[in-house]
Structure formats: C-alpha cells, structure tokens
Fold each of these.
Amino acid sequence: MLSLRVPTPTSFRRLHAGRSRLSRDCLFSYSPSFVNRGVRLRVRSTKSEVVFTPTEEEEEVTLPEELQPELMPKHVAIIMDGNGRWAKNQGLQPWDGHRAGVEALKEIVELSGRWGIQVLTVFAFSTDNWIRPRIEIDFLFSLFERSLKSEFQNLAQNNVRISIIGDSSKLPKSLLRLINEGEEGTKNNKRLQLIVAVGYSGKYDVLQACRGIAQRVKDGEIDVDEIDEGLIEQELETNCTEFPYPDLLIRTSGELRVSNFLLWQLAYTELFFAQELWPDFGRSGYIEALMSFQQRQRRFGGRKS
Amino acid sequence: MAELPGQIKRMSGGIKQLLEQIFGFSRRCLFRIISMGPIPNHLAFIMDGNRRYAKKCGLEEGSGHKAGFSALMLMLQYCYELGIQYVTIYAFSIDNFRRQPEEVQSLMDLMLEKIKSLLEKESIVHQYGIRVYFIGNLALLNDQVRAAAEKVMNATAKNSRVVLLICIAYNSTDEILQAVKKSCINKYTYNIEASGSYKHEDTDSEIEAKDIENQEKKIQLVDIEENMQMSVAPNPDILIRSSGETRLSNFLLWQTGNSQLCFPAALWPEIGLRHLVWAILNFQRSHSYLEKRKKQL
C-alpha cells in the first residue's frame, strides 16, 4: 500500500521533464529522497493529479535525485589535496588556500551528515607534511584550533562526533587540549563521526598497532600464534569507529596517489580521483563521486554470480 | 602451378616477418625517445578483466585467462626492453580461493602449466635473464604448484639482470600480518635474551642498561619492512590495474603508498604498448616533484 503525504503547497515551480518516477496507481508514494529543493512534483495518475512542494524540514534530509539511499557508502575518506595550488591560481598566499579548504570541509561534513554517511575521515596533515615551511605549519595548527573552537557548537548541534587519529606527540599543547575537549564533548553524538587524521601515516598506524600487539604478547595476554588480521584491526587507530574500512576514498586535485593514507584500511576501498582542487570540490563534486561509487560492482576477490 | 600456394605461403611468411621487424624497430625507437626522461624502476600490474574478455569475445571460460597470459608475456617483453628492472604481477589472491572450485582448479592447472613453461629454454626467463620470485602464502597452494614454483625460484636464483615477482596466494594484509608476527617473535626473543644478560650488573649501570633496553625494545618501521616478503624489491613506481576498476584489492598496500596509480579501461588481454607508454609518460610528469619531496624527507 502506498502512502500519500501532501504538505500545503506554497509555491509552484517547474519540474524538469523525465525526473519523476511514478507508480501506476493513483496513490503516489512520496519519499523525501526523490524530492529536491525548490522542485514541484507532478503526480500523473489514473484518478487524480496532485501537485505539491516539500516543506523546509523535509528539504533538510533529502538526498539528491541522482543518488540512491540504499547504495550510500557508510564510510567515506577524503584526501583534501590542492589548497596550495588553489591559492596560487587565485594569486593568494598558501594560508588563504587552507582557509578556503576549511570552508569546503564544513560543507562536506554537513552534506555527509544529511545524506546518511556514518563516518567521514579526512586527511588533514600527513607525516610527510612536516617538511613544509614552519610558518605554514604554524598557521595550519592555529587554523585548526580556531576551527575547532568555532565549530564546536555546530558539531554538538548537528550530532557530529569528532575523533583525531595520528601521531599527536609533535602537536602544540594548546591544540592537544582542544582536541581532547572536542573528543570528550562529542563522544556521545551518533549522527556522523568525523575522523580527522593529523600527523598520520598508514605505515605509522600499522607500526603502532604492531607495537601494541608486541606489548600484549610480552605481557602474556596473547600468544604469538593468536595474532591475526582481526587483532591488527583492533589495534589500528581506526578502532575508534564501528566502520574502520572506507567504502570510498576521494582524492582531489587530480593526483593519482594514495600518499600513505589509511594503508591497511584501503584494501577494498573504491577510489575516486576528482580533478578539482579541494576548495572547489563542493556539493557537485561530492555527488559525482558518490554517483560513481554507486555504479561500481564490488566483488572483494570473488565472483558476481 | 602446384608451386604457387607454396610460394604465396612463403611470401606471406616473409611479409609477416618484415612487418614484425618494422614494428620492433619502431618500438625500439619509441623506447629510446621515452628513455630520455626518467624510467620507472619497478612496475606492478593487477591483471583484471580476463573473464569479461572471454565473455565479450564469446569464448569459453578458460580462454580469457589464456589470452591474459599472452598479454602478460607481451607486457613483460616491453618492460624489460624499456629497461624496467622489476615487474610484479598479481596472479592469484587469497580471496580468489572463494570462487567456484572448478574455476579455482582450472586456474591452478593453468598456473602449473605456465610455471613449468618458464623453465623451458625458449621461455622469456632465459631470453631476458629473469630472476623469478613467488610471493605469497605458498602453503595455501597445492603441492604440485608449490613444488613447481620453488623449482623455478631455485633455477633462476643466479639471474641478476631483471626480476619478476609473481604474487600468488597473496594478500597485502596477510603479508603485513606475517611481517608483524615475525617482528613480534624477533623482539620477544631479543627481549628475553637481553633481560637475561643484565642480571649481573651493579645498580647504576643496571639502570642505564635498562634505559638502552627500553629504547631498543620498541619495534621500528625497518623491523616490519625487513620481514615483508616484498622486501626483495624496491617499492613500485607505478601500479597499473586494467579493466577500469579503481581499487587496490588488497595488493601491495604497504608498498604503493607513493606509487603512481593507473587505471586503463582496457581489459587485461587487450592491454598494449600504448597503455604502458601512457603510464610512463604520466609517471615522468610527476617524477621531478616527487624526487624533490623524497630528498626533503
């Protein structure tokens, strides 16, 4: 039985031809996932015609038409590459590029929460980035601190949990304090988990997992023969989430490399390489990446029967 | 008149030979031009798309893999002609054991046949002086395939010009797991021995010795890396996966952190010189930037 929900029509705007998918019966199944902002939906039926527009609340949780809700990835990872080049193209300083990058990240975090993605991991700062000029590194960390402070309320309101992974030993103490406060304050939020990789490298992650396991062997907690892939998974820094393996990895700026990000966890991840630089990525780039993901056939080494 | 078919046959054979020589010459010229820029030292291939190729051409099931093998021989020839020293191929994943038993068996039979053919005098191994390694959890293979693989490894151990690494019954996570296990065993044994030898020192030097001990106790990156099976080769410069799928499928995860990734849409049996050249030109484009970064690190 199909159900009909008809909010009071307030404005009428044209619907692009061919976009609506309709049932044969007169009762129209209205699902928020098929409605986009500012779009009028015309229901052709054998018995009646219904025209309505969605309300503001329903617009908040709508998925773009191009995406299917049942094929959304649970965990998306992003290598946010291209801030420096973006700034250079615009004739700006590198730090302006990073500021623009933070704005782009805010948009993606908001969209991820709305579209039902459960974990979003972003590569903010790699171990290789330590070779950058000191002034740029200092700026990045102070930008990170400012963003954490200003966005804390937003994260709480949007039910976003923040976690940080990576080697925090070289980070400034003020940043570390903020990170701990942020993690503590948002640990019960359930809608979206935002994992920020700072001072992170995939090899370092496996190394620290190995050290953890070696310690447990030394303490007599486990036997060497009991070491298996599950144990390594438990010790990796991504053990802070229920879904440690990304379904989709997006890298912006057109570079075709993984750059030592989430090494173990990327075994079966679908990779998507976007041409845009990170500050330009935005909603349309994200939809393109997700659409590409939804069209892939994932076999995990087996065969599609 | 009876001689005519024979003459035509000889002529067409001659033309074919001439064409091959012309193509070979053009290819070597092209390689000389490309070699003016940096050439990768190590190329890795994920040979995906054999079955889809068979389906596309309306062939029977096993023929896709046979066509794939021919494509592989051609690519190896090009790589070694170009001066690439290491080539790694993903022949069979541990996950592939989950396929239908008939397919797994036919793949094992094909691999046994091809592994044995590597020892023949006319094989590519002798032509280019290839040292062959079989990388993976070989205990998972049946006795015949494992014995053939070990025989080839022993027979080619003295070759030093170029190297072919065949990943069979391989998973990157399995490789890392084995390396982690070995590192833990080595460190554990070291720690037991080390703690035993400090018992007879006096108080001050005992404390100092313990500090040194604590420093050395921690496993380092090199400990894991030296226990990796792929440590016999440097990291790949380029990873090429055919058939357009863009994922790593648990292949060389540890080693390809900074590798150039290439995902040509062609199915593996369709892979050709142009895909290799395209991959190398892309590699050359980003090479200078990466070298600069490596020096800084």
Note: The first helix of chain B runs from residue 3 to 34.
Amino acid sequence: MLREEMQEVFIVAGNTHQEVERELRSARKKMHPASSDEPPMRKSSILGKKTEVVEDEAVEGEYGMVINGHSLAYALQEGLQLEFLRAACMCQAVICCRVTPLQKAQVVELVKKHKRAVTLAIGDGANDVSMIKAAHIGVGISGQEGMQAVLSSDYSFAQFRYLQRLLLVHGRWSYLRMCKFLRYFFYKNFTFTFVHFWYGFFCGFSAQTVYDEWFITLYNLVYTALPVLGLALFDQDVDHRWSFQYPQLYTPGQLNLYFSKRAFLRCVLHSGYSSLVLFFIPYASMHDTVRDDGKDIADYQSFALLAQTCLLVAVNMQLGLDTHYWTAVNQFFLWGSMSVYFAVTFTMYSNGMYLIFTSSFPFIGVARNSLNQPNVWLTILLTSILCVLPVLAYRFLYMQLRPTINDKVRHKVRQDKTPPTAAPRRFQPRRISTRRSGYAFSHSRGYGDLVTSGKFLLRPVRSRPPLFSRSQPSGSPVAEDSPQIFRTITEEPSA
Amino acid sequence: MMASSYNAKEEDGHHSGASGPCGAAVKSKKPDNTAFKQQRLPAWQPILTAGTVLPAFFVIGLIFIPIGIGLYVTSNNIKEFEIDYTGIDMSSPCFNCSQNFSWNSTRPCKCSLPFSLDQPFESNVFMYYGLSNFYQNHRRYVKSRDDSQLNGDTFSLTHPSKECEPYRTGSDNKPIAPCGAIANSMFNDTLELYYVDPNGTRTQIELAKKGIAWWTDKHVKFRNPGSNNSNLTASFKGTTKPVNWNKPVYELDSEAENNGFINEDFIVWMRTAALPTFRKLYRIIQRKNSMTPTLPRGNYTLEVTYNYPVRSFEGRKRVILSTISWMGGKNPFLGIAYITVGSVCFFLGVVLLIIHHKYGNRSNNSDIPN
C-alpha cells in the first residue's frame, strides 16, 4: 500500500486534540499548499438544501498517511472530522493502525456521509463486522479468523487476492450487463408505446391500439423476454484475462457512464425516432393500397400484423447490435423468440382457434393473407434497416472519433487474438504452523483504557470511574515491571 | 473459536475433500469448473470495424437502389383513375343528391358523372369505392360487432353481445342481426359503369361481384345461421334489420351464395380499415381476352344511386378504377423510400469512409492511457 513512489508518508500520532489538528493541517498544507481552511462543499442542486458533500481536491504527487487509534479518536470528533477527511482523501493510501472495531465503522461512515463515493470494506475477523456492515459493499474473508465476517457481508471468499477478481471481472461485468439490460428494456418498451401515440392522430384519439391485443400481452412475456435475459446473463465486453490486464476498464463504472441521466435521455430519443419510423413507414406504404389480387390489405388487422412484425424485427436487430458476446444460448434465445412469434401468430390466426374461441381470436386469416405479399416484406425490411442504420453509423462514428477505453481494448483483443497469460502468482512461503491472531490475555497494558474511555461513542456516556489507576498498589505487577512505554488516558467528560 | 479445526492444507481456501474433525469426507463447496458456470462459454465476439461496417453500408445502398427503382417503375405502370362524387360543388352532378338527403326517402336519388379515360386499361380492372375522413379505426367502432353472431352461432343470433350497444336491439326490443355500429353504417351506394361509344351508344360494363372478399372471411369467418342456406328468412326469424338499413340482411342479394352474412359486399365492409382514408373493393371488371383492353380509351359514365350520406362529418366519397401488379395498387411511396434510403446509405458510407481514412487510427493505437 505504501510505495516507493510516494513523496511523503505523514504520521499522525498526536496525543491531544490540538496536536492532531496541527498534524493534519500541516499534512494538508504540504500536499496542497493553496487549499483553503474551509472545506470545499459541493454546490447543492436539490431543492436548495445544503448538502454535506465535500468536493475532491486534486494533488500533485502521491502521499500516504498513517494514523493510530488514539489520534483517530480525536480526529473523528466533530470539529476535526472534515479536516481529517480532506487530508486523508488527498492521500493515495491511509493506514489506520490499532483501531477499534467501532472506529473502523466510523471511518467508513465518515466517508459515506461526506463524499459521493461507493465504499467497500473487506475484513476477515469479528472485529471487522461493524465496518463491513457500515460500508456500501461488505466483503468477508472466510477462513482463519472464523465465519463472523462472512455472515455479515455481502460477498465473501477465501483469500484477499480474490478481491481483484471480484472488482475487475465480476463487478465490472455486472455493471455492464445491468446497464445494457436497462437501456435496452426501456428502449423496447418506449418504442412499443410511442407508436400508439402517433396512431392517436389517425384514429381520432380514441386509444385504439395499433397492435393485436394478444401481441401486447405476449410482447414482454414471450417474444422479447428471453433474448434480453440472455444479454443480461452472458454478456461480456472483454475476457476475464483481458479485464485483469487493463484495470482502466473499471473507470466507466466509477463514473457511471453507462446509465446516467444523459444515457437515459439518449435512449428516450432513440425510442422516439424508432417509433416514428415504425409507424409512419407502414402507414405510408399501406395508405390506399391493396393486395396483388386486388383485395384489401389496408384493413386494421393487416396493419396491426405488419406494425407488430416490423417492431419485433427492429427491436431484435437492436438487441443483436447491443450483444457483444454471442454464446450459443444467446443465439438460441434470439432466433427461437422470432420463430416462436411466427409460430404463435400463425396458430392464433388459424381456422381452428377461431372456431373454438371465436371472440378471443378475431384475427383469423390475417397472417395467411398478408404475409404472402411482397409489399409487406419489403416494408418490414425497410423499417428494420431504417431503425438500425443510424445506430450503427453513430456507434461507428464515435469509435472513430472518440474511442473509449472499452473500444481500444476490444480492438486490441481482436488484433492480438491470443489471450494474455496470467501474471505468475508470487507464491508466498507456506506458513508451517498455525497462527492465531486473537489473544485471550495481554501482557502489556494495551488499549483497554481507550476502549472504555467512551471518547468515541455516539451517545454521551455517563462518566465512570477509571478502571485502572496508577495509584493502586495492587496494580498488575506485570504492568509495573514492564519496560514498555505506554500512555495514560485521563478521563475526560465527553463533549 | 474455530482455530482448533484449522488445517494447514486449507491455506488456499480449498475445502475440497478436507477431512473434518470427525474424519468424514466434507462435501466440496467449490463451484464446478465447467465452461457454463465459469462464464467461459465459446462465443462469437463481433466488433464494429471499418472492414465490416463500411461494406455493409455500401452493400445496402447497392441493393436498395435497384429495388426502389423496380418498385417505382412498377407503380408508375399501374393505371389508376379516381373520381370524387361527393357533390360538394354546385356544379357537380351529385350536388342535389348530397343536399337533399334524408333517411326516410323511398325514392332513391340518382346522379350520373361523365368521365373519360386517356389510356386503355389492360387485364383485370378493379373498381373501388373510397371514403375519406371516415374513422373506421375508432376504438368504440372497432369493437362494436359480434363475431359469434356473424359466424352463424344460433344463440348469439338472438342474444348479441353487449359490445354492440347501442345497436344491439331495435324497435320492439328485437335483437338486431347483424348487430353493431360497423354493420349499421354499411356502404350502400350503387355504382354502375357505362361505356359511351363515339357515336353515343351506351353499353353497360359487366361488373363481377364475386371474389371481392378474402377467402378465409367468406368461408370460415362469416357463416349464415341455420343448417342450410336455402331458407334464410326462417333462419333469421326473431331478429330485425339494423336501424339504418333499407332491407334486412337476408335480402341483400337474390343468390343464396351471396345472401345473408356471407354477402361479399357486407364482408368487405366489415373488414374495418386502419386509416381514415381508405378504399374497399366494390366490383371486378374481368378481362375479356388478351387482344382487347378491358377498358378501352374513351368516354364513360358513372351512374350513382346516392344512398350514403357523408356531408355531416365532412367526408368524401370517390370511385377508383385501377389495375394491379405484383406489389398491389398504385403506391409510389415504397419505391421512392427505397431509392432515398439506398442513396442516403451509400452517401453515408462514403462519408464514413472519408472519416475513417482521416481519423480512423485512433482506436487502433495501442496507447491505452493509465
């Protein structure tokens, strides 16, 4: 965590409030000489409420900080909190040593409250439980210290090094899949709905649906359910080995690029455009038209069939553009859904179904009579191409002019063709004997006083008599004889 | 604490097969190392490169433009003639009929419109009546029908569905057959076509009224009630005609094959249109032989029995005579759309090629910033 490249590592080990404050302030001034004494608060944008979020401050160079439990007790008090937060956030790494479990949780909560960040806490022992529960994401390590951390965590695994995989591979893929799924789901449903808005102008605003009622029922349930599920389960932008190779791929997730308000607006505009194409092209091509044997094709039922087929083909082509990782399952879901659509349509519009359930299936004969017209298929082809081509052009253009980190890595993957070999794992020498880290006793005075001082409790505590006093003659002989230097903590009434 | 059961072999977190304190084999918690569960399924990973996108644009452009030209040329070769006979202008022959309309008039109003065809119409000529500003796609209108009744179900004949309200029961509470607003507003103008010779003699052009509805409609969807079609009057006993009709449904035609619910004009009307401007097939003028054109060049007269009022909702009525091709009636839109999209696609391909040439190496640079 502390590296050679760090310019300086600040040690905060003050005994009193003023000392700690001085140390923190000097650290901050050294890192960012021009920083003001007032913490830079984020401008509030929600209803004029004052926010408590502290802005990030950029520094030149890398710094580290080490702070121990005593000083942390002072640093987490009301007046010094923000000072500590600012100084700590300017560093690349902060080590808090000899802290109590509650202090661990308090540090996490401090960051959560005053920074727009997602916090992750990882620990392996029972003393990490409060920290794990306080953070947004809690990771527990199972094994040596027992299962307490695991039981209270969101994710758990057996070794610390698996954290890299959790973040860079699984976390990243999860974010990507979730955002793609959401964007596509909104797109297909907005497109489906906006078409009715345009039809309103031509049906006297009587809320007549463009599509068959059965299509509306089965659209989200059957026809477009499995392909998008396949996208959300299996999609990967790059391999797991490449994900390790390029940790920079993680930044889009940190910046929330894939599903921000702007991305949602883009999705809505795209749906608007698609719905215009999906209504007006069939409208114009069916306007005052007839079949090739002169009979009717511009009737409501044939128009509905045409519109719904165009919609389904267009949204499935869009899904095809969105999917970056075509497994056999994805292929099966996509082509399977299209064939199920045609199978169900022909079944529902057949003679048999009409004769059994007359009022439920009034669309009899429509599929046979309109899907054998070349006119209809040419319209379907035109609408789907017109829906998909702008997206293709837009994405290609962006890739040429402003490639994202994702685009670059994917191009490199394609060029190299061979996956990178995993970095050889540095094998640590195996520990031969068991090692325990919990002790039932201590032969030095330790920090019991710190714990019982109540300095950092959230609720003000009634003052208690000190547990250990130096004047007791029957004090622990070990404490008297010990050559170690230890601190005394004088009891102060809590603020 | 669990320190006592700790085993050095469990260093790597592998609990596979490690013996527990009692020596029995512990079930492994390690997930299967299959391709499916470890997300290593073999997959095709396409990527948008210039080598795939640009040819796609050019190919689409090159395919669409000829298709568009073909469609446009075909559409232009279709001959179509349209004549509006609503009678808005004072100079129109049908002006009097449109003004003096009333539902109860027993004497039908007739008007005749002369027109001339510049080009002969070959092969089968289809005669349509067209309506404008008529919202057959209004939601309440579309559901105002009873498909079971129209399919010949005897129970539904005398108990029409509630969707048909307020056209469900007629005078003295008898059920209406066919019920609903769609049936009630059936188009009932009669149109006749006469060819006027250069020397003035009028010959009536034969209009075929069979084969204008979909086969599935005529033979499956619409059936007359009762077992045999011979005595329709008896089959429809207990029902009354729709409010705005002149004669009941079993008197629509003298032929039994075209009477009752399976009357083809009725079936064509019941197939509601999707848009407020539509045309419906009225009659077919069969071609005589391949030598003579079906409708030669010259003067014609259209005789209209004006029964259908459209002035109240500012609608328009028209007659359309049209030939047919493999793409249907005359509709230049699809041809023009294909040509436009094809050329835009081609142009876009050229633009993207230029952009790729100038800036395209940005994504190929292996400079991936830290």
Note: Chain A touches chain B through 96 residues (CB under 8 Å).
